[in-house]
C-alpha cells in the first residue's frame, strides 16, 4: 500500500471530474473525518484514516482490499473506474441519466442504453460526457458515457445508443471474482 | 749513368719489399685487445706527442690506422675459415664487448587480475607437461590448442540431459559456449592491457561492437543524450522519441501514514490547478446552446404556421431558452431542478 504519486493523483482526478466535476473537493475535504486514497496492487482504495491505520497491521501479500475500491490503474497508467465507486459518486454527479423501468434490466446486464429506454437526461450534457445512470426511482444503477448531446438525443431514432455502458451494479453478481 | 739508374731502381724495389714485409709484422709495446665478433681492436699504447705535431700528423695517423688494421686482420686470419661460393670466409665468434642499450629498459607491467589473485591466495605456478596421453586416440597430444587431447567440441555423441529441451541442438550449444568462452577470454585480456596502460575503457554497451542490438543502441543513445554539461536537460527529442523507461533510479514514494492535512492540501491545490486549466468558454457547450436556440426558433416558426395550439407551451419554452443566458449554462437551472425533455416533439 502506498499513497498515490502526483501523476497518478492527477489522472484519477481527471477521470473523477468527468463524472462529478468540482465536487471532488467534497470527497477530499470531508467534515466527518479524514479520508484518503491509497494504492494497493494497482487498485485505488478510498478509506478513512482509522481504517488505514488498522490496515497497516496486515502484510502486503495477505491484504486483499481496504475501504472502497474506486478503480484501478492499467498497465499503461490509465485509470479505470469501477462500480464500487458508485455510492460515493452518485450523490455528487453533475450529469444524470434516468432509465425507464423496462430497460433497467438490459442496462444491468451490461448493455448500452438506447433512446427507447431513456427516461430523462440533464440539460447541456456534452457528447462523451461521463454520466451517472439512475432508475426512475432515483436509485443509482451505474456509470456511463453520453453518446449524444442532450440536443441530439431529442432528434435521433429510438434504436440508437444514447449512453455507453461503463459500470453497473449488476457487476456485483456477474463479476464477483474480479471485484475487490 | 745507366748503372746508376739501375742501382736506383733496384734500391727502390728493395725498399718497397721491405715496406711490404714491414706491413705484416707490427711491433707494439702493449698488445691490442681484440673482439673479433664485433671486428673490434683496442689499442692502449701511449701516443708520442712529438709525432703529433703539425705536418707529421696526417702521416702519423695514417700509419697508426694501418698498423692496427693489420693486426686486426692478422687476428681474423687466425679464426676458422670456410669456403662459401669460391670465397674464403672467416667465421666470427660471439662478440665479447657489451654494448650499451639503445632504448631505455622496459618498466615492469602491473599484474593482471589473475596474478593479483594468485599472489593474494598464495597460488604457485605449477609446471605442466606440454603433451598429454590421449587414451582414445592412443597417442600423445598437446594439452591445449590445435588437435588437443580432450577436445570438447569434437565429440561425436552427446547425451541429452534429462532436464533439457529435446529439440535443443546440443552440438550447437557446445559450440556457442566455446565461442562465448573465447570472447570472454579475449575481453579480459584486453581489459588487462587497458589496466596496464591506464586506458579508460567505456562501460558495457558503449564500446562499439560489430552488430549492436536494438536495446544496446537505445542504451547508447540514452547515455549519449545525458552526457552533456546540463545532463541532457536541453536536448530536443526527435518527433516520435519516447522517454527511456527504467532510468535506474529507485522510485521514492510518500510515507504511508504521512501528514494527512498536508496531503489534503496538496490534492486541493492540484484540483485548483486543474480547474484553472479548463477553458472558461466551453466550445461544445457554446455550440450546443447555439443549436438549441436555433431549434427553438425553428419550432417557433413551425408553431406559427400550424396554429395557436400549444402556443402557451411554446412561450414557456422560449422563456426557458432565453433564461439559459450566459456563463456555463447552469444559471437558473441549478442542480436541484429536474429539467425536462419534451419527448413527443418530432
From TrEMBL, chain A:
Q: What are the recorded GO MF terms, alphabetically?
A: RNA binding
Entry's Gene Ontology cellular component terms:
nucleolus
Q: What are its GO biological-process terms? A: ribosome assembly
Question: Which Pfam families does the entry mention?
Answer: pre-PUA_NIP7 (PF17833), UPF0113 (PF03657)
The record places domain PUA at 95-170
Keyword Nucleus found: yes
Q: Which domain of life is it from?
A: Eukaryota
Location comes to: Nucleus, Nucleolus
Q: Which UniProt keywords apply?
A: Nucleus, Ribosome biogenesis, RNA-binding
* Protein family (similarity comment): Belongs to the NIP7 family.
Q: What does this protein do?
A: Required for proper 34S pre-rRNA processing and 60S ribosome subunit assembly.
Q: What does the subunit comment say?
A: Monomer. Interacts with pre-ribosome complex. May bind to RNA. Interacts with NOL8. Interacts with FTSJ3. Interacts with pre-ribosome complex.
> What is this protein called in UniProt?
60S ribosome subunit biogenesis protein NIP7 homolog
Q: Which organism is it from?
A: Carassius auratus
Automatic annotation (TrEMBL), chain B:
Cellular component GO terms, alphabetical = nucleolus; preribosome, large subunit precursor
Query: Which GO terms fall under biological process for this protein?
Result: endonucleolytic cleavage in ITS1 to separate SSU-rRNA from 5.8S rRNA and LSU-rRNA from tricistronic rRNA transcript (SSU-rRNA, 5.8S rRNA, LSU-rRNA); ribosomal large subunit biogenesis
Q: Map out region (Disordered) in residue numbers.
A: 230-346
Question: Is this entry keyworded Nucleus?
Answer: yes
Primary subcellular site in the record, as a coarse category: nucleus
Q: Which InterPro entries match?
A: Ribosom_reg
UniProt function note:
Involved in ribosomal large subunit assembly.
- Sequence similarity: Belongs to the RRS1 family.
Q: What name goes with this protein?
A: Ribosome biogenesis regulatory protein
- Organism from which the protein derives: Carassius auratus
Amino acid at each position: 500500500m502506498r499513497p498515490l504519486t502526483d501523476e497518478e493523483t492527477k489522472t484519477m482526478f481527471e477521470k473523477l471530474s468527468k463524472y462529478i466535476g468540482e465536487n471532488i473537493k467534497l470527497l477530499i475535504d470531508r467534515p466527518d473525518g479524514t479520508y484518503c486514497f491509497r494504492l494497493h496492487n494497482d487498485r485505488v482504495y478510498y478509506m478513512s484514516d482509522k481504517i488505514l491505520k488498522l490496515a497497516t497491521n496486515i502484510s502486503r501479500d495477505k491484504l486483499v482490499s481496504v475501504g472502497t475500491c474506486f478503480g484501478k490503474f492499467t498497465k499503461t497508467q490509465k485509470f479505470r473506474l469501477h462500480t464500487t465507486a458508485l455510492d460515493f459518486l452518485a450523490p455528487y454527479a453533475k450529469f444524470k441519466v434516468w432509465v425507464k423501468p423496462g430497460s433497467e434490466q438490459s442496462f444491468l446486464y451490461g448493455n448500452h442504453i438506447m433512446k427507447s429506454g431513456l427516461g430523462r437526461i440533464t440539460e447541456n450534457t456534452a457528447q462523451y460526457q461521463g454520466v451517472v445512470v439512475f432508475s426512475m426511482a432515483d436509485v443509482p444503477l451505474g456509470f456511463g458515457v453520453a453518446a449524444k448531446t442532450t440536443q441530439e438525443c431529442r432528434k435521433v431514432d429510438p434504436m440508437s445508443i444514447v449512453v455507453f455502458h461503463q459500470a453497473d451494479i449488476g457487476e456485483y453478481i456477474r463479476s464477483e471474482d474480479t471485484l475487490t | 749513368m745507366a748503372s746508376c739508374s739501375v742501382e736506383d731502381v733496384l734500391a727502390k724495389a728493395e725498399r718497397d719489399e721491405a715496406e711490404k714485409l714491414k706491413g705484416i709484422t707490427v711491433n707494439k709495446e702493449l698488445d691490442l685487445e681484440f673482439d673479433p665478433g664485433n671486428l673490434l681492436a683496442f689499442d692502449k699504447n701511449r701516443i708520442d706527442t712529438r709525432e703529433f705535431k703539425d705536418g707529421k700528423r696526417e702521416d702519423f695517423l695514417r700509419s697508426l690506422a694501418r698498423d692496427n688494421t693489420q693486426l686486426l686482420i692478422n687476428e681474423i686470419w687466425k679464426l676458422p675459415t670456410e669456403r662459401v661460393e669460391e670465397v674464403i670466409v672467416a667465421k666470427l665468434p660471439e662478440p665479447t664487448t657489451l654494448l650499451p642499450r639503445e632504448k631505455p629498459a622496459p618498466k615492469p607491467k602491473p599484474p593482471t587480475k589473475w596474478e593479483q589473485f594468485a599472489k593474494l591466495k598464495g597460488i604457485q605456478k605449477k609446471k605442466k607437461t606440454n603433451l598429454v596421453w590421449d587414451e582414445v586416440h592412443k597417442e600423445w597430444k598437446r594439452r591445449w590448442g590445435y588437435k588437443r587431447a580432450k577436445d570438447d567440441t569434437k565429440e561425436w555423441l552427446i547425451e541429452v540431459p534429462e532436464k533439457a529441451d529435446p529439440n535443443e541442438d546440443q552440438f550447437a550449444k557446445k559450440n556457442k559456449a566455446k565461442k562465448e568462452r573465447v570472447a570472454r577470454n579475449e575481453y579480459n585480456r584486453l581489459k588487462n592491457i587497458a589496466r596496464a596502460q591506464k586506458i579508460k575503457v567505456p562501460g558495457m554497451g558503449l564500446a562499439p561492437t560489430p552488430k549492436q542490438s536494438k536495446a544496446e543502441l537505445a542504451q547508447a543513445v540514452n547515455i549519449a543524450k545525458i552526457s552533456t554539461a546540463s545532463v541532457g536537460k536541453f536536448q530536443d527529442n526527435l518527433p516520435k522519441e519516447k522517454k527511456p523507461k527504467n532510468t535506474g533510479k529507485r522510485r521514492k514514494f510518500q510515507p504511508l501514514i504521512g501528514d494527512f492535512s498536508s496531503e489534503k492540501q496538496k490534492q486541493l491545490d492540484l484540483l485548483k490547478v486543474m480547474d484553472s486549466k479548463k477553458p472558461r468558454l466551453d466550445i461544445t457547450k457554446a455550440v450546443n446552446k447555439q443549436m438549441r436556440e436555433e431549434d427553438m426558433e425553428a419550432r417557433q416558426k413551425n408553431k406559427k404556421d400550424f396554429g395557436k395550439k400549444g402556443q402557451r407551451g411554446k412561450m414557456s419554452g422560449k422563456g426557458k431558452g432565453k433564461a439559459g443566458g450566459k456563463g456555463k449554462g447552469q444559471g437558473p437551472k441549478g442542480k436541484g431542478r429536474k429539467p425536462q425533455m419534451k419527448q413527443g416533439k418530432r
